[in-house]
Amino acid sequence: MLRIGAHMSVAGGVSLAVDRAELHGCEALQIFAKNASQWKGKPLDRDEIRRFRRRVAETGIGPVVSHASYLINLATRSPALREQSIAAFVDELERAHALALLGVVIHPGTCTEGPDEEGLALIAAGLRTALKAHPRRKTMVLLEHTAGQGRSLGHRFEHLAAIIGALDGSPRVGVCLDTCHLVSAGYDIVSAEGYARTFADFDRLVGIDRLRAFHANDSKKPCGSRVDRHEHIGRGCLGLEPFARILHDERFAGLPMMIETAKLPSRGRADQIVLDPLDAENLGTLRRLRDSPPPRRRA
Question: Is the pLDDT of residue 288 over 90?
Fold first, then answer.
């Protein structure tokens, strides 16, 4: 069975994300290890690191991953932005190592000029530099398959395969698949035939063994729209059946499946640990699908 979880806020301290995850019954967790909208974050407090790691062990929540800053663009041709992006990603890997996370989820990058192939080469070179900064560590890079908005790269399985190939198939590079992004990018996982074809193509081009995590999000936009708009589970263009298929797919047993759906606006102190009814609803929906009989295979 997949391990169901969510992206949780680190407001008030990174360890409080584990408390929030426990309150919501999460089995897996994603966090921001720093402010995702800023280049630099304050250093992680040592006591917070210890409490985070202790709480993860106490609750049994895992795998735990972080999501890299949205500012990072490893496909840029701008020397200044490229240097800044690589340095920021090295910092993300260092934070993930300190917190003993499985890895860091990152959007591959946006090609601002030139052909896609050159952008993919730039991404691979940037990742190689970041991984070489601490070659003995095991913290993984988790390339997130994207929706394909604008000139963002990573929306085709061929893009992910090219990046991994340029890194000589490094065992420290895995993939995170987002259900909303798959459909938006044109991969039909809604129909049984499309689902089978999508994961056959992924296995052929990238390899199922590279898959380390799922983001569970429905989509406000239809298949092939190349627009990234998350919707609550079962309320969008995917419906419930694709999530049920994934949750019952033996190839994905043990992988984390984490929601990134909208939460209610926060109120009160940053360190409050309160149940978010929208998270509770989405997580409950996934649990019910997992605990129900698998979808019938059509003749």
Answer: yes
